[in-house]
Specification:
246 residues; Helix Hairpins; 6 helices; 72% helix; disordered C terminus; binds zinc ion
Length: 246
């Protein structure tokens, strides 16, 4: 009976480890969404740089157009002014506008150069970032697969629980369920203390010799009077050899 209970405890430990894993697996995806946002921001910055340069180029072209219009207007006035100073002032204005135009034209050349570089960088960024995002998506899909596998595994284990629990005596099972809600493992072996006395393998408090004898005789089930865990003598349970792992 107790051997079946230990098997049940092993199964329950396995099931809760699988549940734990189900909680942890999706957490790996959290860092991916941060990475993805970072990549998207990077791409947007690269695109914005090209846009900003194009806007500046358009502004410069607009200003040149405006200045050319001023020059035309001044040239028209040249034909009608009477006074020499006015004529000179107009020539001076025209000259000034022309100088400003040539500065803007130089600026446009430099912007066009920048645009070319920014576009090249944008193309590279697009390719690299698409690659990285694809890898992240593959990784996410892999994690989803891992999770689905873990859920399937857990459900399969859970399916074997009821038939196993049915093999445990009802009173003992109820006691086990009660204890395990508060502490796990709920079933623990007697362990020898350095005072050569037997103690509870859960809380390590000494167990009375009479109780130890009864546990060893396997006549009755005993719980630790300190922590309520169900106690057993390891020598009575040879079959469940890997119990120690849990
Ligand atoms: Zn105890």
């Amino acid at each position: 009976m107790l051997r079946k209970l230990l098997e049940l405890q092993q199964l329950d430990t396995k099931i809760s480890a699988l549940k734990q894993r189900e909680q942890e697996i999706p957490r790996q995806k959290e860092s991916f969404s941060i990475q993805r946002k970072r990549l998207e921001t990077e791409l947007k910055e690269s695109e914005d740089r090209v846009k900003k340069l194009r806007l500046e180029q358009r502004d410069c072209e607009g200003e040149i157009e405006q200045k050319n219009a001023h020059i035309l207007k001044f040239e028209g006035q040249l034909l009608v002014v009477k006074k020499n100073e006015e004529y000179k002032a107009l020539l001076h204005e025209i000259d000034l506008q022309k100088k400003q135009i040539s500065l803007k034209e130089e600026r446009i050349l430099s912007i066009m150069d920048d645009i070319e570089h920014a576009q090249m960088k944008l193309q590279e960024d697009k390719k690299r970032i698409a690659d990285e995002i694809r890898k992240l998506e593959e990784e996410c899909a892999r994690i989803d697969g891992e999770l689905a596998e873990a859920v399937k595994d857990r459900k399969q284990q859970e399916g074997t629980r009821a038939p196993l629990a049915a093999q445990v005596e009802a009173g003992l099972l109820a006691r086990y369920e009660r204890v395990r809600r508060a502490r796990t493992p709920a079933v623990v072996p007697l362990v020898e203390t350095n005072k050569q006395a037997e103690a509870c393998g859960g809380c390590y408090m000494t167990i009375r010799p009479q109780v130890v004898n009864e546990i060893m005789a396997a006549k009755e089930y005993h719980s630790c009077s300190h922590c309520s865990r169900i106690l057993y003598y390891p020598g009575n349970i040879e079959e469940v050899t890997n119990f120690e792992e849990y």
